[in-house]
Specification:
The complex is a heterodimer of chains A (169) and B (124).
Chain A (H helix, E strand, L loop, with lengths): L1 E3 L2 H12 L1 H12 L3 E2 H8 L3 H13 L3 E8 L4 E8 L4 H25 L2 E3 L8 E2 H6 L12 E2 L3 H18 L1
Helix pairs in contact in A: 1-2, 3-4, 5-7
Chain B lengths: L2 H16 L5 E2 H8 L3 H13 L3 E8 L2 E8 L1 E3 L31 H18 L1
Helix pairs in contact in B: 2-3
Classes of the chains: A alpha+beta (169), B alpha+beta (124).
């Protein structure tokens, strides 16, 4: 089965995989295939090192390819880049498998343990034995640990697992 | 035909094909795209080679013609938007039998809850 992805969705997905700068570089490559890293840096007013880092990340994800030519005048190699969004779906599948595995671990933990939490979004939740070890004080902020009701989180995790598993069918 | 024009036509043809899951007569597609049958045949061959369509001989209006059956599916990546994992420095080492456990990770929990609540808001 061949998948079609809307260009705007492709860019959003590239942002998930490589960050905001990867999205900017990808958008530029979609409009201007076969530009060099120097040209990208100039056009986007980005640091050349950052552009190369982003291109390397996109290369790791198999989303870009390059051709090398030799610039005799400046005695250096020039890499010209091209984006292949048709590789995006296969590239994202591996990530989805791993996220689903993680969500299943989270689901098991919350279904099998009594969990305690201080209520601050930046602090971790603890199982009963860890809460006892810390005398029911949050090890991060020192706040009082209270029992956490995981029902909404479990429903949310189930929904996300189902949505992500649709990718894999 | 210029490569960029062919690429643009291909993009438009794909959008039309996605709306005709059961297939579309190639003459209808050429009409929608505003191209000649010669340009159209070239485009259809390209689409078939890429595995985007299957060409099937059918009898329509007492004439044999080709129907283009799409083999392509729209990919909706929205459930993955906002996912923190691909950019997390622990991504390569997080999961079952790995050195980092996702249990208690506030980033992944926040993402899941936010997306769940947004979904509920849209429904109501």
């Amino acid at each position: 089965m061949v998948f079609y992805i809307e260009p705007e969705d492709a860019l959003k997905l590239i942002e998930v995989l490589g960050g905001e700068e990867a999205r900017r570089v990808a958008a530029l490559l979609m409009e201007n295939p076969e530009v060099s890293d120097m040209e990208i840096a100039e056009m986007l007013q980005m640091d050349i090192k950052q552009v190369r880092k982003v291109l390397h990340r996109l290369l790791e994800l198999s989303l870009v390819t390059y051709v090398v030519s030799y610039d005799k005048e400046n005695a250096r190699r020039v890499f010209r880049w091209r984006i292949h969004t048709d590789q995006l779906v296969s590239s994202v599948r591996g990530q989805v498998v791993r996220i689903v595995e993680r969500l299943k671990m989270i689901k098991d933990f919350y279904s099998q343990n009594q969990v305690y939490w201080c209520g601050k979004s930046t602090c971790r939740k603890l199982d009963f034995s860890s809460a006892v070890d810390h005398f029911f004080k949050c090890p991060t902020c020192g706040g009082q640990l209270e029992p956490f009701d995981p029902r909404e989180l479990l429903e949310a995790v189930d929904e996300k697992i189902e949505q992500l598993q649709r990718f894999l069918r | 035909m210029q490569t960029s024009k062919l690429a643009r036509l291909e993009e438009q043809a794909i959008r039309i094909l996605l709306e005709h899951e059961e297939g579309i007569l190639q003459s209808e597609l050429w009409h929608m795209l505003g191209i000649s049958s010669r340009e159209g045949s070239r485009l259809a061959i390209k689409l078939e080679k890429k595995g985007i369509v299957r060409r099937e001989k059918v009898l329509a209006n007492e004439r044999w013609t080709l129907k283009l059956i799409p083999l392509i599916k729209r990919f909706d990546p929205s459930p993955l938007f906002g996912a923190p994992c691909p950019l997390c420095p622990f991504n390569p080492n997080c999961g079952p039998d790995q050195s980092v456990s996702p249990v208690g990770c506030t980033l992944i929990e926040d993402w899941v809850i936010r997306s769940y609540r947004e979904g509920r808001k849209e429904v109501s």
